[in-house]
Amino acid sequence: xxxxxxxxxxxxxxxxxxxxxxxxxxxxxxxxxxxxxxxxxxxxxxxxxxxxxxxxxxxxxxxxxxxxxxxxxxxxxxxxxxxxxxxxxxxxxxxxxxxxxxxxxxxxxxxxxxxxxxxxxxxxxxxxxxxxxxxxxxxxxxxxxxxxxxxxxxxxxxxxxxxxxxxxxxxxxxxxxxxxxxxxxxxxxxxxxxxxxxxxxxxxxxxxxxxxxxxxxxxxxxxxxxxxxxxxxxxxxxxxxxxxxxxxxxxxxxxxxxxxxxxxxxxxxxxxxxxxxxxxxxxxxxxxxxxxxxxxxxxxxxxxxxxxxxxxxxxxx
Length: 317
Ligand SMILES: Nc1ncnc2c1ncn2[C@@H]1O[C@H](COP(=O)(O)OP(=O)(O)OP(=O)(O)O)[C@@H](O)[C@H]1O
Hints:
By secondary structure, the chain is of the alpha/beta class. Helix content is 37%, strand content 27%. The protein has helices at 42-49, 70-75, 91-101, 106-119, 134-145, 164-179, 191-197, 215-221, 236-246, 272-284, 299-309, and strands at residues 2-13, 16-27, 31-35, 57-62, 76-79, 152-156, 183-187, 200-205, 208-213, 226-231, 257-261, 264-269, 289-295.
């Protein structure tokens, strides 16, 4: 069942359209990644979901409530891309202050805050926030998004600009929150992280969602898996001849890309059925197949392809 529904969401700044026609829904317990180049509209989308900016059109609901409604705020934890903290306060005082705003009973708040900070491995809890490292500040900001124990978390770039150790900590922690049943909307530039923890992904470009679905679905819509057949001879001429003689059924369904690599000839085809046709053509040409590999494009490969295509490269809206 969807806990977050977005329908035709739009944001204009004067004449400029920052987000256009965003439509998606997110199931309870899902981790949904929003990716896209700088200026694609990710932060604007997340802020509209969190009720921090007013949409110019379309609608969104979180747990059945419109963004900004007090009942929805109780269900939501938002981690902004930039999260200035009150520098004079300690982490514990700062988090206690926000727990109070959510009317969390003080004994529950104390236990929740320390448990979260333990899980985030946060040291120096009694040091002024103005004197702690960037990674610690980010952890405190994450803990702040959790003080009301929300069902839905919106994390805008949770680990950007942090060292690899802190980054891994935060990504692992996000995964654990998902395992506990939280629904998480997550934007990130590090596509490896998105690929490793997101169930579904929306790729944005120029304010529009240009691809959406599981990584598998997005892969299929953008070329999918390729088969690389390595052989001692180039079979493309034999394949062409076979195709000319008896029609396309004897040859690969699509064109074969041929290149040379370490003295071998690599034939790249899009379908498993094509692999057999290549093997036959190689043998008919006096050669043999030495290796067959499947190559799956990473989210990064797909992202680069989509981002360079622009909105016309739309796979699924
Ligand atoms: N308050 C504003 N007034 C005018 N334009 C804005 C405003 N906020 C954002 N924009 C523009 O809207 C577009 C989308 O911005 P947004 O911050 O949502 O992108 P993003 O995908 O989060 O980018 P990044 O990865 O750089 O954080 C950008 O071109 C940005 O300059």
